[in-house]
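[09:14] KT: can someone run the structure on this one? pasting the chain below
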Amino acid sequence: MQVPPVKIRGPLVLDHDTHRLQPLLHDLVSTVLAPTTALSGTDGQIRPAGVQGLFHADSRALSQARLTIDGREPEAVSHATRTAGHTRFVSLARWLGDRIADPTVRVDRVREVTPGRLSESVEIASTATVPVTATVTLDVSCDFAPIEVVKSGRTAPPAEASKAGDGALAWSSGPISVLVTGTDATGTGATGTDAVADLTDDGGRLTWEVALAPGERVTLRWLAVVDDPAAAVAAPARPLEWSVPQVEADDARLVRLAERSLEDLRSLRLTETGDPEETFLGAGVPWFLTLFGRDSLWAARMTLPLGTELAASTLRVLAKRQGKGFDPDSGEAPGKIMHELRRHDFASDGMNLPAAYYGTIDATPLWISLLHDAWRWGLPESEIEPLLPALEAALGWLGEHADPDGDGFLEYIDTSGRGLANQGWKDSGDAVRFRDGRQAEPPIALAEVQGYAYAAARQGAALLEAFGRDGAGRWLEYAAGMATRFRDRFWVDGGYPALALDGDKRPVDSLTSNIGHLLGTGLLSAAEEARVAELLGGPAMSGAFGLRTMSTDDRAFSPLSYHCGSVWSHDTAIVMAGLAGAGHGGPAGDLAHGLLAAGEAFDYRLPELHGGDSRETVGKAVPYPAACRPQAWSAAAAVTLLQVAVGLYPDVPNGTVALRPLAGAPLGAVTVRGFRVAGADVTVSVDRSGTAELTGLPAGLTLDLPA
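[09:31] RB: done, structure tokens below
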């Protein structure tokens, strides 16, 4: 069998053109309101280096926005992000004003990003006892580099600027254009401070002359507007789709994590260009700020406690692009749910993914599960019925096209040689490894995907039966057969499910977080779930700030490996929820505390992933250098954490709502006001003894409390 070349999905930070290490993505500040993102240093400067810039969708507009005062960069003091799209940077110009210990000239750079726009006010305040005069300049460049060029560490030449007036600069490339304007200054020291635009070798420059008497201040403003009709995604026109709950908790970290995560989720809302009414969550900044089947589905599923509108919209968006025919280049197949959407082909490091790419093995069963779970949370029948044909098509893919060799398992191989070598959620080229470190060869059948398929078959059957459609019996038989096959083939010496079966049907025997996704699918017996909980709760898997992707006992383990030892927030949350649902509150509580400690380390903006170092060794979560922040399913993990803490599990079609909080209340007392069941806001409280209370249920629903 010819094995396609390995392609690493994880981002790089080496500038391929200059061979210099560029600033790490983790060290940059992102100001986001999708589909527009500003990535800068902690001082607010956007420098022409690495991944810094103003991005719109999957293209970089500005590659530089560097502020100087008398030719010097202000010295950074602090920065803070208050709400989605808003960051304040505080700096000093200590060479101006009085030469004393206390700084007397302060610079506040207040940045606001809205879809297609970056506006900034630069507030310069003097408490000096002497007059202050200065020349303030903003150097601006634009390169229109595609995100895949930026991601691979390559550079693009600066685009040529033109003057668009006394205080304006313009760039264009095909359908994309950027206009930067500087406005007149305001404030008590605003005399003679009109913005003047000039051209430079690599772009343009805005200049203001500032004169401040003692105690005066001046505010300079500039604005960048991006016109990008070719982008695949745009900002939604509709109001926010979910509730914004109010959280009270003994552990203040839980409150802070929830507040920041909800703002991050708001900043990632997207729609397809031309369809502003249907909203989904972009996967993450900066690499994946677009529609991603798996990521958008998981994020919508994890946020169901906030309402079903986002889930319904995400389901409809993906149903519209559901596969119709066979295309080996894109991976499209009838009934299959898409993986990712771009404005053009995504070519990077040996990959060449079509603009609409279907190379995912798990998005289709996850689509079915989201539809089922949204139904249980109260999605109206009138919104489910139009999606039933897409459900039947997705089930058809599950039974007819996901198992090319007929062994009864879902498996993948990139036959094109240009797509993703691995097509589960761990999609880097080296993610599937044996316990001795050897890399598995395709076709690959992942453990968690079989669990997803089992759950989707049973959930699809429940929906078909409830809505009077034929075929439920077939999918119940499919699920029963999957359980038997899985038990026969996947369990390895040591008593746990393998990560996968390789191309020769050998179990890939590493111990990984993948098997935690089986919890709650129904594929495992209670005894098998207990064994998985025991292994995942041990120090080799849970000894970091969350759940490691691979055990420390495996040879391929590395704490900063993208998928072989790092900790992913969403992965930890999914497994935590599975443990809690299976009654294993101890290890679930440990993972919850790990997530909270990680959140604290990252200013309560959980990154895509972080290092899998031991809590006892490092004392604080270690950043993964190129992790996305904010990231949809990482932010959604905070909602899952709240749900697990209070134990809210509705089944609206059957008229019941269960309360099963974590035993012993390991997070202390928690109250959530604004979870949403069947369209109604409810309040859920758990006291320090673990006793739960719920108010606000709509009529017709019965509360099911633990015996």
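[09:33] KT: thanks! Residues 1-21 have pLDDT under 50 and may be disordered.
[09:34] RB: yep, looked fine to me
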